[in-house]
Predict the structure of Peptidase S1 domain-containing protein.
Amino acid sequence: MKAIFIAVALAIVMALGNTQDLPEPGVCGVSSIAPKPPSRIVNGETAIPHSRPYQLLLVGFFPNGTAKYYCGASLIKPTHALTAAHCVAGNEAKDIRLYPGIHEFTSALLTPSAGIPAREYFRHESFNNQSLANDIAIIRLQTPVVIDNVKTGLICLPPASAPACTVGTPVVASGWGAFTSSKNITGPSRPTELNQVGLQCVDAQNSDCRRLTYTLFFIQDKSKMCAYAPNKGVCFGDSGGPLVRERTTASGQKYLEQVGIMSGTVDCSFSKPSPDIYADVRYFNAWILNKIKASS
């Protein structure tokens, strides 16, 4: 019976990985280990181990196998990950690895053999590395992740018709980014465990957000959104990671939905409190579906 169950489970996973549609709430956005409500990524807290099973670590390597940087990412299908365009720009797919199902970030992970290779990636065609416009990328994994909703799980994505993340909506960012404004890849300023931080969505008309998401202060870049909480935020190493909100289905089931991709920060708010910038996932719904279709 156990062998039959495993075979059926794997068949479901493989079928889901080969379909072009995104998973429905209940298949995505759920976990066997409930996350605790956030209170450092900067001034956040350590997440309950594996309570955010959609969280991935992304590491870029030099051709000789030495790690050169890391980012966050999220698992949206067993075969596909979502991250920031600036986390893959300038790198070949063969030098990128994704690490699912981890909580502790140790030096042992910084080897290509420990991760899942990227087969290919799609960086948004209009990505601008200076302004961070259209800062989104889809990665097609070499092999699918087996989903158990304990250590590994999928995050739901909002359809284009989903409501925007309105002002004051509670959201959570997660990652292994720095506690200080140090950009060093390792060291005491970096956490060894996955951290999370509770934030709120910010009005695009907010003066600080407007300065980050508008061109010449009057042309809105709708690919961007902001999140903020006093004395809290994301930092270097959190780029590409998910910003999620809780939603409820018509039948009453609660699930998590990714509304943003961590894109940029103003000095991690250390010199002056400021919102952080995220790519607005809802805005990219059609683009995401198109790239999944192209790589399935």
The longest helix spans residues 2-18. The first strand starts at residue 45 and ends at 46.
